Amino acid sequence: MYQDPEIYMTPPTAEFTNLLGRDTLKLAKTTLSDVSPFDPEDLHQLGRRTRKIDYGDTFKIN
Q: How many CB atoms lie within 10 A of CB 18?
Protein backbone atom coordinates (compact mmCIF):
# COMPACT_ATOMS: atom_id res chain seq x y z
CA MET A 1 0.00 0.00 0.00
CA TYR A 2 1.16 3.55 -0.71
CA GLN A 3 2.57 5.48 2.24
CA ASP A 4 2.11 9.01 0.83
CA PRO A 5 -0.80 8.87 -1.59
CA GLU A 6 -2.12 11.98 -3.29
CA ILE A 7 -5.86 12.25 -2.71
CA TYR A 8 -8.09 14.01 -5.23
CA MET A 9 -11.51 15.45 -4.47
CA THR A 10 -13.64 18.49 -5.14
CA PRO A 11 -13.45 21.40 -2.65
CA PRO A 12 -16.93 20.71 -1.19
CA THR A 13 -16.05 17.04 -0.74
CA ALA A 14 -12.80 18.00 1.02
CA GLU A 15 -14.67 20.29 3.43
CA PHE A 16 -17.30 17.63 4.14
CA THR A 17 -14.62 14.95 4.64
CA ASN A 18 -12.85 17.14 7.17
CA LEU A 19 -16.11 17.87 8.99
CA LEU A 20 -16.99 14.17 9.18
CA GLY A 21 -13.48 13.35 10.41
CA ARG A 22 -13.61 15.93 13.19
CA ASP A 23 -17.09 14.77 14.16
CA THR A 24 -15.93 11.15 14.29
CA LEU A 25 -13.08 12.10 16.63
CA LYS A 26 -15.47 14.02 18.86
CA LEU A 27 -17.95 11.13 18.97
CA ALA A 28 -15.18 8.66 19.73
CA LYS A 29 -14.20 10.71 22.77
CA THR A 30 -17.72 10.93 24.15
CA THR A 31 -19.27 7.59 23.20
CA LEU A 32 -16.61 5.07 22.24
CA SER A 33 -14.19 5.35 25.18
CA ASP A 34 -11.83 7.43 22.99
CA VAL A 35 -11.39 4.59 20.47
CA SER A 36 -11.24 5.88 16.91
CA PRO A 37 -10.01 4.38 13.62
CA PHE A 38 -7.74 7.43 13.20
CA ASP A 39 -6.30 10.27 15.25
CA PRO A 40 -6.08 14.06 14.72
CA GLU A 41 -2.68 13.71 13.05
CA ASP A 42 -4.17 11.31 10.49
CA LEU A 43 -6.85 13.88 9.71
CA HIS A 44 -4.20 16.58 9.37
CA GLN A 45 -2.17 14.40 6.98
CA LEU A 46 -5.28 13.75 4.92
CA GLY A 47 -5.73 17.51 4.54
CA ARG A 48 -2.11 17.99 3.48
CA ARG A 49 -2.29 15.22 0.87
CA THR A 50 -5.62 16.28 -0.59
CA ARG A 51 -5.53 17.89 -4.03
CA LYS A 52 -8.71 19.86 -4.62
CA ILE A 53 -9.92 19.67 -8.20
CA ASP A 54 -13.03 21.47 -9.39
CA TYR A 55 -15.83 19.29 -10.68
CA GLY A 56 -15.42 18.56 -14.37
CA ASP A 57 -11.75 19.57 -14.50
CA THR A 58 -9.35 17.06 -15.98
CA PHE A 59 -5.96 16.34 -14.46
CA LYS A 60 -3.07 13.91 -14.72
CA ILE A 61 -2.11 11.54 -11.95
CA ASN A 62 1.64 11.09 -11.49
A: 15
Which residues make beta-bridge pairs with 8? 51
The model's pTM is: 0.80
3-state secondary structure 3-38: CCCCEEECHHHHHHHHHHHHHHHHHHHHHCCCCCCC
CB distance 11 to 18 below 8 Å: no
Is residue 43 within 8 A of residue 21, CB to CB? The reply is yes
Helical (H) or strand (E) element with 50: strand 50-52
Quote the CA–CA distance of 58 and 52 in Å, as a whole number.
12
In sequence order, the β-bridge partners of residue 51 are: 8
Read off the pLDDT of residues 3-32 as tens digits, 9 standing for 90 and up: 778 899 999 999 999 999 999 999 888 887
